[in-house]
């Protein structure tokens, strides 16, 4: 591997940095986007059961908020009526929508960086290709001392070709998985957001029914 990096020349280093960052982002998103951290299957039913006889106290609300991303959104509904028992349905839905936007931003964190890596890696590989081609033409141009074109250094020619090919390959090797994982995480986030929207709407109807005298 070290010999390949040396043969690829200095343009390979930005690609190596992109690969390390991309791998770190993929691992982080896999850990952060687990269902248990976002939308635990039974959390909504538990929140409804706890509040069946009235809005629970601050301790229960804090525990719910720390449970997951969905828990933080549901806790906003409890906090709305704890802060103002006479809050209207519009107030409740506005607060839940605000919490939902915050949750969406949290779920989409780092996806933009992963998309940037997927877009930038082929361009960096192309840059390495261009630099390799420059070295190839430079090796064939002669040294300005009467050496005719085509009589350049074969070792320099081979080095230019290796820079061009290795950087192109590395750029694609990095970009393709990054693009695949970005699309996968986007689909996963959209699925979570839909589930949270449905759960929040059901929870809002429940809270409004509980609040009625």
TrEMBL record:
Places the protein is found: Cell membrane; Membrane
GO biological process: protein import
UniProtKB keywords: Cell membrane, Membrane, Protein transport, Transmembrane, Transmembrane helix, Transport
One Pfam entry name: MotA_ExbB
Domain MotA/TolQ/ExbB proton channel: 66-197
One cellular component term from this protein's GO annotations in UniProt: plasma membrane
This protein's name: MotA/TolQ/ExbB proton channel family protein
Family (UniProt): Belongs to the exbB/tolQ family.
Main subcellular localisation: membrane
PANTHER family: MOTA_TOLQ_EXBB PROTON CHANNEL DOMAIN-CONTAINING PROTEIN, PROTEIN TOLQ
Organism annotation: Hydrogenophaga borbori
Transmembrane spans: 12-31, 110-137, 157-182
Membrane topology: Multi-pass membrane protein
